[in-house]
Amino acid sequence: MTTLSRIQKLVAIAVGGAGGVAVYLYTAKRDNASVYNSWTTNTVVPDEAKWDFNWDHRDPKSIVKPPSKHATEDEINSYNEKLEAVKPKAVRHLILIRHGQYNLEGLTDDQRYLTETGRTQANLTGQRLKVLDVKWDKMIRSTMTRAQETGKIISTELAMNLPIENCSLIEEGAPIPPQPAVGHWAPEPAQFFQDGARIEAGFRKYFHRANVKQEKDSYTLIVCHANVIRYFVCRAMQFPAEAWLRLSLNHASITWLSILPSGRVILRSLGDSGHMPPKYITSR
Ligand SMILES: *[C@@H]1O[C@H](CO)[C@@H](O)[C@H](O)[C@H]1NC(C)=O
Ligand SMILES: *[C@@H]1O[C@H](CO)[C@@H](O)[C@H](O)[C@H]1NC(C)=O
Question: Which amino acid positions bind substrate, per UniProt (predicted)?
Answer without folding.
Answer: 98-103, 146
